[in-house]
Amino acid sequence: MTMSIFNPDSINNELSKPTSIFGLKLWVVIGILLGSLIVIALFFLSLCLTSRRRNRKPRHADFASAAVATPPISKEIQEIVRPPAQDHCHPTQPVAAEIQVDIGKTEHRVVFSDRVSSGESRGTVSETASYSGSGCVGPEVSHLGWGRWYTLRELEAATNGLCEENVIGEGGYGIVYSGILTDGTKVAVKNLLNNRGQAEKEFRVEVEAIGRVRHKNLVRLLGYCVEGAYRMLVYDYVDNGNLEQWIHGDVGDKSPLTWDIRMNIILCMAKGLAYLHEGLEPKVVHRDIKSSNILLDRQWNAKVSDFGLAKLLFSESSYVTTRVMGTFGYVAPEYACTGMLTEKSDIYSFGILIMEIITGRNPVDYSRPQGEVNLVEWLKTMVGNRRSEEVVDPKIPEPPTSKALKRVLLVALRCVDPDANKRPKMGHIIHMLEAEDLFYRDQERRATREHASRDFNQPRTEISPAVAETSESDSSKDRR
Ligand SMILES: Nc1ncnc2c1ncn2[C@@H]1O[C@H](COP(=O)(O)OP(=O)(O)OP(=O)(O)O)[C@@H](O)[C@H]1O
């Protein structure tokens, strides 16, 4: 019997017998059963795997929601630790925006062309206004390495909701509001316009570079706000107006700005700019030195404002700009002509500013008679004609000594040398302004010699020989 079971012929016979299931042969039925079993096993296996994957998914979801809930402060900290020097040459800087400047005395709008490439929303005044009050996500207070990141809500509260009555001025970069923070600090909040070219990250990087700059003769940046289309800068409030107001405003017959005060202002400005040019790496070229950018405190100390803003708003990889920016009358000729920017362009503007402070005149004034419209040309002519004393602002209560006048005129004229390479550096200017008589006499003698030889070769010089001549004779006069 056992033998017959393992006999292949009998097995074949058994398997080939038809069964009661649709008369199918036994081996077919067995095959179908085995196949079904395999299919069922596979089905359960896949069910098992799917349920395991589903069980893992919620863990991913938890992580993702945790990331969303992470306070943005962590992102801030990451960005802050990036060294500014590295960021300056960041390869992913946006393409330099084309800039268009409408030049005017108090109003010069800086406009970006439409080809600005940025992922940032295009902020216009109306857009930013409509953004107000939106539930922006952001921390109430974030401490930066150098200052604070303010929320829009915080700055709106400080400025009465960016109220008209808090407006203290409007410049080419935006509207400035006065405000008081919750801790009682008085601040100036600059709501930047034309921020379309600046993506949030680049804005932060640039602001943080400016924010780290500290000097008693530079207006201090306390922090910033970047929410949606808003870009705001928060500065220390400087409480005695700007130089333009004190020189050209209605101050009566006699200006409170005595000669000594004016000289102190010039020295303060020089120190602030020397720090930007010579005390920082990379150096900062201001690009828009003018009287309205010089703020004064109650002791008549001057603080240079708006430094770094040009870079902030117009990211460039090179120092050759497509359009020149600056203010009419202050812009150095080589910068106006070629767009080539160096700190020597600031020196030129500084020279113009000295002339404005001494004379009380605007750099360009069309209300004056022909020959007096352009301050530099008029001053050179006056000095050349040995009429230096006549250039002094008649509102100065007591005129300066001849020596003091010649000293500062000499500095101013050297600063506006048409040849940028011949203009002195800021550090040197400080020495010239502070130097003792002996040093000055040396400078003047050298200037005389240089001019004598230069005059021989070229008809027009940057410093009239008369300055040097009269300086020399005046210093001997003063010595007497
Ligand atoms: N930190 C500050 N403290 C007090 N007043 C300020 C401060 N910053 C700016 N202001 C005032 O706000 C006004 C506008 O300043 P802003 O620098 O925007 O314009 P501007 O200097 O007139 O022109 P531009 O923007 O073209 O340089 C000026 O009258 C200035 O005195």
Automatic annotation (TrEMBL):
InterPro entries, per database record: Kinase-like_dom_sf (IPR011009), Prot_kinase_dom (IPR000719), Protein_kinase_ATP_BS (IPR017441), RLK_Ser/Thr-Kinase (IPR052232), Ser-Thr/Tyr_kinase_cat_dom (IPR001245), Ser/Thr_kinase_AS (IPR008271)
Binding site for ATP: 190
Membrane topology: Single-pass membrane protein
UniProt source species: Arabidopsis thaliana (Mouse-ear cress)
Keywords: ATP-binding, Kinase, Membrane, Nucleotide-binding, Phosphoprotein, Serine/threonine-protein kinase, Transferase, Transmembrane, Transmembrane helix
Transmembrane portions of the chain: 26-49
Biased composition (Basic and acidic residues): 445-454
Stretches the record annotates as Disordered: 445-480
KW Cell cycle (keyword) present: no
Main enzyme class: transferase
One GO CC term, this protein: cytosol
Places the protein is found: Membrane
GO molecular function: ATP binding; protein serine/threonine kinase activity
Annotated Protein kinase domain residues: 162-440
Protein name as it appears in the record: non-specific serine/threonine protein kinase
Family of this protein: Belongs to the protein kinase superfamily.
Entry's EC annotation: 2.7.11.1
Gene3D superfamilies per UniProt: Phosphorylase Kinase, domain 1 (3.30.200.20), Transferase(Phosphotransferase) domain 1 (1.10.510.10)
Matches recorded under SMART domains: S_TKc (SM00220)
Entries under CDD domains matching the protein: STKc_IRAK (cd14066)
Catalysis: reaction(s): L-threonyl-[protein] + ATP = O-phospho-L-threonyl-[protein] + ADP + H(+); L-seryl-[protein] + ATP = O-phospho-L-seryl-[protein] + ADP + H(+)
